[in-house]
Design goal:
By secondary structure, the protein is an alpha/beta fold. It has helices spanning 4-38, 49-58, 61-81, 118-131, 152-160, 171-180, 203-212, 237-248, 263-279, 283-291, 303-313, 325-330, 346-351, 387-403, 407-414; strands spanning 86-91, 94-102, 105-109, 135-140, 165-168, 196-198, 217-218, 226-231, 255-260, 296-299, 317-321, 337-340, 377-385. The protein contains 15 helices and 13 strands. Bound molecules: nicotinamide-adenine-dinucleotide.
Length: 419
C-alpha cells in the first residue's frame, strides 16, 4: 500500500522554495504566504495577549471542561514519563553519569487548515512543560473568519496552558520561521529561532520538518493520519466502520486500513461504510480518503499473519478488535500507538486518554516514537575519573589509540603519569 512518504517527495520543491523565501524575506514573506495559502489580507503574526485572554473568556464552558480534563490526564502521564538520571560507579574512582536536560526553546505547530485542533495545543504543550522547557512558542494558521488570528479555541487552549507567545502562521512557512527565526521588522518583534520544532500537520508541514531537521530537532514525522484495524470475525462491523471513518475525516490523504482474516467481516464493514459515510458531516473528504490507494482491506489467512502485516505496515494508530486483543497487542512491535479492544477507539486517544496524539506516520514508527517528554530533552553524559582510576585503564587507551593510528590520544593519557 502506498504511504504518505511518496506525497512528501512531491511537496519537496514547493516547500524548499517557501523555506528559502522565509529565510530571505522574513515577515514580508510570511504575510504574502498568509495571503496566498490562508486567504488572509491583514496579517499580524504575533497574536496580542488580549486576544488570548478574550478567547478563553468567550470559550464554551463544556469545551473548557473537556480541555481541562484532557490537560489533567495528559499531565499525569507526561509527568510519569520523565526519565531518570543515571549515575554509575564503573570501578573505584571511576564515575559516569547521564543527566537529562530540557531544550531551552521550542516551536510547537498546531494544524488548522481543514479542521481546528485545540487538542494538538495540549498534546504539544503538556510534554514540553513536563520536560521543563522554559521558552515555548506556538503557531497555527491564520483564519480569514477570525480577522487573521488562529481559531479562537486554539487561542483559548493556549491561554489555559499559560502560553504567551502565539503566532498566526501556517504550513511550511511556520516551520521555517521557527527553525531560522525572523528578524524584527516594523511593528513585528524578532521571532527567536527555536531548538526543537514539533507538531502534526499536512504534507507541507511534514515535508518542511523533514527539510529543517538538523538545523533544529524535530519530533516524528506526523503527517496525514493513518488508522489500521486488526479485526477478526467476532468484531462489531459498526464500530470498525465508525473508527475507519473517524480518521478519514482528517484529510483526503488519510489512510484507513482494515486487516482481517474474515471475508465476511470485510463485507459487513463495507456495507456499514456505505451507510455511515453517507450520513457523516465531512462525507466528501471521508469518501476521498477511503477510496484512495492508501486505504483498503488486507485479507490475511489468519491472525498470526495479520499481526505480521500490522508490524510491517507500522500504522500511526493501530486498533486491535479481536477475541484476545491484549494478547495480540503484546505482539505488536511497530505502531505509533496501539488501541486495545472495543472500548479504546482512536478518538479517545485523539482527545482524552492521557496518551499523546502526535504520532509517527508513513511507516516512520519503525524508527521513531510519538511525542513524549524526552522529545524535548537531551541526555548529557558526564565522566569523572580520579588519578588511580585513569591509571588503571591507561594501557588500554594507549593500545586502542595506536590501533587507530591516533597516537596523540594515547599521549594525552601518558603525559599525566610522566614527570
Ligand atoms: P495544516 O495546518 O497542517 O495545514 C494548513 C497549511 O497548509 C496552510 O496554512 C498553508 O500554509 C499550507 N498549505 C495549504 N496548501 C498549500 C499548498 N498548495 N502549498 C503550500 N502550502 C500549502 O492543516 P490541515 O491541512 O488541516 O492538515 C492537518 C493535518 O494534520 C491532517 O493531515 C491531519 O491528518 C494531520 N494530523 C496528524 C496528527 C498526527 O499525530 N499524525 C494529529 C492531528 C492532525
Amino acid at each position: 500500500m502506498p504511504r504518505a512518504e511518496t506525497t512528501t517527495d512531491v511537496a519537496s520543491d514547493a516547500v524548499a522554495a517557501i523555506i528559502a523565501d522565509v529565510r530571505s524575506r522574513g515577515y514580508n514573506a510570511l504575510s504574502e504566504l498568509a495571503a496566498r495559502f490562508d486567504r488572509v489580507e491583514q496579517h499580524r503574526p504575533l497574536v496580542p495577549r488580549a486576544a488570548l485572554k478574550e478567547a478563553l473568556q468567550q470559550l464554551d464552558p463544556q469545551v473548557r471542561a473537556a480541555l481541562e480534563e484532557s490537560i489533567r490526564r495528559a499531565r499525569l502521564f507526561a509527568d510519569a514519563q520523565r526519565p531518570r538520571n543515571t549515575d554509575l560507579q564503573i570501578g573505584p574512582g571511576a564515575n559516569v553519569a547521564q543527566k537529562w536536560i530540557p531544550v531551552r526553546r521550542v516551536g510547537l505547530y498546531v494544524p488548522g487548515g481543514l479542521a481546528v485542533y485545540p487538542s494538538s495545543v495540549i498534546m504539544n504543550v503538556v510534554p514540553a512543560q513536563a520536560a521543563g522547557v522554559s521558552s515555548l512558542a506556538l503557531a497555527s494558521p491564520p483564519q480569514p473568519a477570525f480577522g487573521g488570528l488562529p481559531h479562537p479555541t486554539i487561542l483559548a487552549a493556549a491561554e489555559l496552558l499559560g502560553i504567551e507567545e502565539v503566532y498566526a502562521m501556517g504550513g511550511a512557512q511556520a516551520i521555517a520561521a521557527f527553525a531560522y527565526g525572523v528578524p524584527a521588522a516594523g511593528d513585528n518583534p524578532e521571532l527567536e529561532p527555536v531548538d526543537v520544532v514539533t507538531g502534526p500537520g499536512n504534507v507541507y508541514v511534514a515535508t518542511a520538518k523533514r527539510l529543517v531537521k538538523g538545523v533544529v530537532g524535530i519530533d516524528a514525522e506526523a503527517g496525514p493520519t493513518e488508522i489500521a484495524i486488526l479485526a477478526d470475525a467476532g468484531a462489531d462491523a459498526r464500530l470498525v466502520a465508525a473508527d475507519l471513518i473517524s480518521q478519514a475525516e482528517h484529510d483526503p490523504n488519510a489512510a484507513s486500513v482494515l486487516v482481517t482474516d474474515s471475508a465476511e467481516l470485510e463485507q459487513r464493514v463495507r456495507e456499514e461504510l456505505d451507510r455511515q459515510v453517507a450520513a457523516t458531516r465531512h462525507r466528501e473528504r471521508v469518501a476521498t480518503a477511503l477510496s484512495g490507494p492508501q486505504s483498503g482491506t488486507i485479507l490475511v489467512d489468519n491472525l498470526e499473519q495479520g499481526i505480521e502485516v500490522c508490524n510491517a505496515y507500522g500504522a500511526e494508530h493501530l486498533e486491535i478488535q479481536t477475541a484476545n486483543a491484549e494478547e495480540a497487542a503484546a505482539r505488536i512491535t511497530s505502531a505509533g500507538a496501539v488501541f486495545v479492544g472495543s472500548y479504546s477507539p482512536v478518538s479517545l486517544g485523539d482527545y482524552c486518554s492521557g496518551s499523546n496524539h502526535v504520532l509517527p506516520t508513513a511507516g516512520t514508527a519503525a524508527f521513531s516514537s510519538g511525542l513524549n517528554v524526552t522529545t524535548f530533552m537531551r541526555a548529557i553524559q558526564v565522566i569523572n575519573y580520579d588519578r588511580a582510576a585513569l591509571a588503571e585503564v591507561s594501557g588500554h587507551v594507549v593500545a586502542l589509540s595506536r590501533a587507530e593510528d591516533l597516537p596523540a590520544h594515547g599521549d594525552a593519557v601518558s603525559v599525566r603519569f610522566s614527570s
